[in-house]
Fold each of these.
Amino acid sequence: DSWGIFTFLCAALCNLPALPALNCSEELGAGQSIQQTYDLTRYLEHQLRTLAGTYLNYLGPPFNEPDFNPPRLARAERVPSATVDLDLWRGLTDNARLAANYRAYSRLLCYLRVLDGQVGTAELRHRLAHFCASLQGLVLSIGGVMSSLGYPLPAGPAAPPAPPGAPAAPNDFLKKMDDFWLLKELQTWLWRSAKDFNRLKKKVPPAVVTLRLEARGF
Amino acid sequence: VSPAADPAVISPQDPTLLIGSSLVATCTVSPDFPLKAEDLYWTLNGRRLPAASYAALGPSTLSVALARLNGSRQQSGDNLVCHSRDGGILAGSCLYVGLPPEKPVNITCWSKNMKDLTCKWAPGTEGETFLHTNYTLKYKRRWYGQDNTCQEYHTAGTYSCHIPKDLALFTPYEIWVEASNRLGVAVSDVVMLDILDVVTTDPPSDVHVSRVGDLEDQLSVRWSSPPALKDFLFQAKYQIQYRVEDSSEWKVGGRRRCRGTARGGRGSGCSHLAPLQVVDDVGNQTSCRLAGLRPGTVYFVQVRCNPFSIYGSKKAGIWSDWSNPTAASTPRSERAAGGCDPKGGEQNTTLRRELKQFFGWVKKHAYGCSNLGIKLYDQWRVWLQKSHKTRNQVGKEP
């Protein structure tokens, strides 16, 4: 029927690379990309709950006690901290925020991988490996969002093998504290990223919607 | 902020101890901190230690005495922590309390298709060592000096390792396992073997089970020999096991007594035993026929394989895993020829069971019907069959 032919033609036309209207497909990509990143962030939050529970039990009390709040010694600052002034954070541009997320997760991934090499039980290693794979996916996903929005990726090695300028913990107890704070920061970053991506989702230009309407406007 | 010294220092830091030993630990506050010995307290794994076990060794040093330590609560070490009065953490030390490992035992190895070697073992300790224990499998060719270390662990369970390549045949190997933890090392006894002694293969593939024409008590099983058979010089012998769908008991080979539930009690007329026939390798296919089966029944069949006469040796190898179960059903004719089946098939068995339960209930709860019982039902069934026979003899209904 003629309506079918029209919609088919429109679809075919939209796929031709020459058409300027094709810019929308990139933003279409960005929308999906942001949604996927948001979903991945939530999934990681969920995974982290289980991982952290298991890991803190492995560290033993008091690390697995709910109200545990050890001091953050100077050395612990090497882990990217998520505790930044919220107004300051919101005041950043999308690009800056995305870049900060990208960098933070890349470094957090490094630290986690080091952890994976040292940790005792097979179950923990398995969980950590799975989490690292998902976190790697998040880093790539954020990179994808930045590309689709036309932002350059942050410079520097994506995942340096050893975190620079970070001395190993001088004793086992301090290492346990470092591990605790790593998980804690990861938790806060993921919680905040979810909000960031949710907000970004709503910001993606509605030109996408407009184009669809135009295509069907015959 | 200057690189802050840690608020306090604990000694000993991260010690390793044998179960039952005692320890005196000290916490010394850094001179930068305005804390005195009386401002401190200790916890072990989150639990406050009694003040009676403390002693002030100096203005800013507090000690604690721990006696007869138990094995560590977690393998990452017990957390001994020195706190300031308000609960803040000043320093911590991880205590590793446990036992040295015992010799690993029961090393068994097998080689899939003569290409690799997988070994498993059991830890020597009945109970726990409480410490993280590392296991290393080592091997070397006898009379050749160099020790090799296995790299791929946990391939067949926690205590296992896989050696994927570079193994020589016709050569005795020495294999052993070393267990080590913070308190010591233990080495298993050495096992000596030749790869050819412990060969196994994949289970046979393409197992097909089918009926034999209309025969109610037979099924034909066919399978393919494992592919490695043609690559290597060994023959194979096979074994079949089968079971009825709703039983958990496997029967091996073909000897099977038929249990009758029909009238007359125990399986009358069913005691013929059908030995399993294993047909010698016919090309690439092998097959066998199961006999003495129950008609109208679903059977699960599995086949496994044992390589033998490897390069002409007399020894047998190791049985492969069983193939995945394949199911098939024997046909059932309308006339159950003197068989062991209850007359009329499955439906009446269920009905009969339900009736039995019903009569049991009646007996219990309805005091009047003492004559009602499952026997009544059986008699009725017999009468039914008799009258059915006479009806047939007379001929078709008008």
Amino acid sequence: MSGGPPRGLPSTGPHSLLDMPHPLAGSSSEEAVGGDSTPSPDLLMARSFGDKDLILPNGGTPAGTSSPASSSSLLNRLQLDDDIDGETRDLFVTVDDPKKHVCTMETYITYRITTKSTRVEFDLPEYSVRRRYQDFDWLRNKLEESQPTHLIPPLPEKFVVKGVVDRFSEEFVETRRKALDKFLKRITDHPVLSFNEHFNIFLTAKDLNAYKKQGMALLSRVGESVKHVTGGYKLRSRPLEFAAIGDYLDTFALKLGTIDRIAQRIIKEEIEYLVELREHGPVYSTWSALEGELAEPLEGVSACIGHCSTALEELTDDMTEDFLPVLREYILYSDSMKGVLKKRDQVQAEYEAKLEAVALRKEDRPKVPADVEKCQDRMECFNADLKADMERWQSSKRQDFRQLLMGMADKNIQYYEKCLMAWESIIPLLQEKPEAK
Amino acid sequence: MEQAPPDLERQWQPAPLEPLGHPDAELQAAVDEEAEVSRDEGPGDGTMTENNFGLKKIEISVSEAEKRTGRNAMNMQETYTAYLIETRSVEHTDGQSVLTDSLWRRYSEFELLRNYLLVYYPHIVVPPLPEKRAEFVWHKLSADNMDPDFVERRRIGLENFLLRVASHPILCRDKIFYLFLTQEGNWKETVNETGFQLKADSRLKALNATFRVKNPDKRFTELKHYSDELQSVISHLLRVRARVADRLYGVYKVHGNYGRVFSEWSAIEKEMGDGLQSAGHHMDVYASSIDDILEDEEHYADQLKEYLFYAEALRAVCRKHELMQYDLEMAAQDLASKKQQCEELATGTVRTFSLKGMTTKLFGQETPEQREARIKVLEEQINEGEQQLKSKNLEGREFVKNAWADIERFKEQKNHDLKEALISYAVMQISMCKKGIQVWTNAKECFSKM
């Protein structure tokens, strides 16, 4: 995506970045490295995701090269480079390298954010900064404030209520890292959001906290104006197309919720099955100790069951770490989208109310007053932004779920293949005649 | 322990069969004439097998099960299941089998047959019956004796029992067994007329012997220990396996929910709809595949159960040895004490306590004539006792020899059968894995078209 307003969208995306001086300009511009802990001179785009990762539109190719178009036959490979807009990419963001920080007041994790871009909005071609979850949270809030007409991607949940989850366990941190990476990549892919100045600051600022304290200085025009809609207006009826979106999102969230519950239940049943398996195998070992000729076959069966147990544990871990979080993200996503729909309703309601007020005044003027026109503008912009975002969302949702469900199928296939191998390898042992030994 | 005089070679014979009239003479002759007994490797899987019975090869099958109502001993109405036993003899010339006998028996009659065999062949590891009541069930199976799955598995188990007996080199020649297969009416009376219940050792006696025997054959002690351990480990295995089956059932069935929700979800989707819908169908297939899988596994469980019950039969043989040994020890002890008594009477020294000695002290010395009489009685008793001890010794040794021969035969059979069972279990697991791969590959294909 090259600089300038994306084609076809009459949105009033922020152009203000070019006007605003970079808050940190002049102080550390020669340093490419940001962050508060270890400097990382190596700014090569690290492979921050393993081969189990979801398909991400911003594939991990080095800056400057365009991603090859994908064909559906490549869907088996999870690292699919899919260029949604068909244009050359000029912004790449990756989240990796989680590190624990122990301070007097608290312990927390930071992640390294690596940015490579040829966009003019970036002073340097590469940046590396460290951010923690609350920084992401701040970014998201800012985006919601400044881009209320757009769909902002969800963050992974702040707290994990269920069970006793160790916030610092490798699995939890890795799951979170993937989600944060996905969050930033979704923004990167967005023709409007990716140009947001808060996003830019987030990616580049050495000291984000200082910037945060500056407050509301950088609200965009649309953000400002929409903020003033107090919500006192009631919409008579949603236009059909938005009503359809609302209905879709309602059902979608419902179905996802059901799938989430099913998936959790399956994992629970599998874990209970695993518990029994772990007792099952050793009984064959105990029996083997009693026997002569049967000792080896029985021990073999015991080992086999052990292999299957291990494979099952891997399956449940994978599903817990890779499958469930993505489902939950989408549920959060659709919730926030419904919020945006409501805001749109507000804007329309205000416009209609003002229009009605004008009509009631029965004035002779054929010309519509300026503020009503502004309302209409706002509404039309909102509608256009939302429609475009919905289309984009539908498309990547389709990609994401295709990958997610194929991944689920894959994990199950791998589980069965491991078990199959174990059992097939034991058949010759069982068939062995005693004389052959 | 007294040593018996040199052994007399004497063939161990089962208890004499009651002569029963005309058809039996022929059979008796036929059985006696038979020079060889074919040794089968053991059926193990409930299919028809051949054996040499008399002069003909026969095939036995328990082909049907039927629910019946009748009146029991207390004239109350009861429901029970009857099983059809068909016997076919195979003509050597053309290999065709001809149905020679078919009759109905109920479970209690099988029990009667087995109890008879236990009494008359205590040195044989007598094949066990399938369980009376369903045990080690996982939640789906009914524990009800009338449940069709249970009845079917019991039918197979009963057939297996008959085949095991028919292929045992010694048991197959038993008259009562032959009549069980051929004489429907009056068979129960015939068995009871043998008076086998009276010959049975009481449990109490056997237990008593177990605790008090001093010098049992070490091999039997070890074997008894083994059979205890085997019983314990197979029970544990069956219990855990049942729980595993239960859990596996849960895992598969929950996947069925995906079918419904994918279908509902596909209704609101445009391009994704078809893929979701068809994937959902595969999830349904997956969920329902577990029923057959677990049904197959039940057969494996039945094979394990047979050997669980065989462990009990093994233990019975060991107990019989203990009993005989204890008997022998008691007899020897008794003989020794009588001899000592005799000696004391002869020499006039009193070392052992005797009632006579006591009364003599109280009521006065006995006369020399009285003493002579007593010595004479004792000497007779000692003589008798020595004869008895000799024959008991012989019996004991015969028992050990024959029992151990059957135990070796049993061990071979057990190793073979259990290996086969383990192989079939592995094959079942392989089949389950392949089915799983198939279903998920199909689902993945559908997802890829989303």
